[in-house]
Amino acid sequence: MIEFLNKHSSTLFFILEFIAAFTGVILYKKYRFTKAKYFIYFLIYVVAFVFVGKYSHYVRNNGFLSFLEGTFIEKNYWWFTIFWDIGGTIFFGWYYHNILEERRSKLILKISVYVFVIISLLEIVFTFPKFFLTSMPIITLTSAIIILQCVFLYFLEILQSERILYFYKSLGFYISCAILILWLIQTPLVFFEHYFNLEDADYVNLRNRINLTAITFMYITYTVGLIVSNPDYD
Length: 234
Known about the structure:
Blueprint lengths: L1 H6 L1 H18 L1 H4 L4 H18 L23 H23 L3 H25 L2 H4 L3 H23 L11 H16 L14 H28 L6
């Protein structure tokens, strides 16, 4: 069972992402007049960029993209750094900026996201071409800080208002729980990236199991949240 999960983990990830996005599309009418509709757009975006990001599988073993072997874009680290580490963080910063009500919280988050983008661009420029070869710890770490800040500000507002009485009916609550767990679990893994190779099969298997658990929890939480949440509370 474990061997099967390790071998097909990327496919399982994609299925979970697709289920969450499909659920969002099915329930779009329910959220079309709320800011939650932008989260559904984001889920569709995730499915699209993950699908394209699978191109690296067709570079190896004489795949139809084997002509990319030996080039900068042979691996897909750069793709996920741009569209997940940076793009995903910018989206969540923007999304929480829209669902937060406190002006001070909005300002803090806005400034933080601008700083994050500047740090990310500088990191890419000054460590080039590492950008194409591996994950970038500085970007991942600062991304996690932005996510933690989003969730902290959101929960703080919930605790200080009457929204605490119906928090479980808000999609924002489910989103916050899911991304908080994912980033807390996945962020430390970037510091062990040099162990992620075929020569260290034990670490590869362990990392796959950790990722599968965290990502499964996140997308199941998204799916359940979309189903049980009440748009009136968003």
